[in-house]
Amino acid sequence: MEHVRLGSTDLSVSRICLGTADFGLKTGKQAAFELLDAFHDMGGNFLDTANVYCKWVPGKGNCSEQIIGEWLRDRKPKDMVTATKGGHYSFLRPWVSRVTEKTVRQDLEESLGSLSRDCIDFYWLHRDNEALSPEEISDFMSTFVREGKIRYWGISNLTAARAEAFGNRLQGISNQWSLALESRKMAARKDQTTIRTDAEMIEVLRKHALPLVPYTSGANGCFAAMEKGTACHGLWDHPANRRIFETLRKWAGELGVSCYVLGQAWLLAQPFEVFPIAAVSRREQLLDFERICALKIPETCLAELAEALSEAEKML
Which residue in 96, 21, 95, 83 sits closest to 52, CA to CA? Predict the structure, then answer.
């Protein structure tokens, strides 16, 4: 896979970031090692994890970070860029932000130990804390940089207004984004602190030349399910996405790829930097990463997808 520089950093990363939220849960250690080996062998070098992954299961701890740390110790890859996140709210007190210098430092220290790292390549705040000014947050994150504990940082689940306020203090943003649209009825039932990339955010990204590293970039396999004729995840089960799927399926057939591959390649074709976080459960699924990066989407296809997306948004 091609490597490019991540925004204003000096990190050279693969265009697709491997998501590891299921490591230690649905994906055991041996299977996770096989996926990490195969991803690295194909040129992948960008990993996404979080201190909170697995912690919602009693007794599991931060098992995703622990598995990655064990793999890093064993394989000793020289070019792997590991991004992790801290500052997620407590599941016992979700209404209380944990984005403070004290609590983020706690998460960061635990992550450094689990990942067997002296310094985290890229560190995300898992949530924002709007009770603090961008200056206050930037000050304590800069402290971690000066201490050599992190190199670069950004924020996940950030509003466009707050992103504009932070401006170039950030080196990246990680919000939810995919070609699929959320059902408003189902979206009202999910975690309301998660934020989808919207038109206002896209303007901020372009203005400040910030890279977007979107999670749930495949919309929980929504279009892959439609392609198989099966039901997609309830969050995406809406006529609006079936309208997008009509155009996606047409062009996927013409280009000789799956709807999933075309949907992810659409992210890479945006007029700003996008590095999708994509998770897989089997080694053979990693081959799609190469197909995504190699696909050149015709302008007519991009135009028709834009039209389908615009029509779909009116259906919500």
Answer: 21
Answer whether 162's CB lies under 8 Å from 170's CB.
Answer: no
Q: What is the pLDDT of residues 171-210, one digit of tens each?
A: 999 999 999 999 988 888 889 999 999 999 999 999 999 9
226 HSE (CA, 13 A, CB side): 28
Q: Which residue has the tokens 């670069």?
A: 152
Helix boundaries (H) for the chain: 29-41, 63-75, 101-114, 134-146, 160-166, 184-187, 199-208, 222-228, 239-255, 259-268, 287-294, 299-313
Q: How confident is the model at residue 68 (pLDDT cuts 50, 70, 90)?
A: very high
Interval 128-142 mean pLDDT: 98
Q: How far apart are CA 158 and CA 313, in angstroms?
A: 21
Of residues 109, 128, 132, 112, the one with CA closest to residue 120: 112
The reported pLDDT for the residue numbered 60 is 93
Average pLDDT over the chain reads 97
Query: Helix, strand or coil for residue 18?
Result: strand
Q: How is residue 283 written in tokens?
A: 């080694």
Q: What pLDDT score was predicted for residue 231?
A: 87
Whether the CB-CB separation of 119 and 145 falls below 8 Å is answered with no
280: left (phi over 0), alpha (psi -120 to 50) or beta: beta
Return the structure tokens found at 78.
């020289």
Task: Residue 125: name the closest of 162, 174, 160 by CA.
Answer: 174
What pLDDT does 185 receive? 83
> In a 10 Å sphere around its CB, with 0-12 CB exposed, 13-18 middle and 19+ buried, how is residue 300 labelled?
exposed
The two tokens of residue 50 are: 């979080």
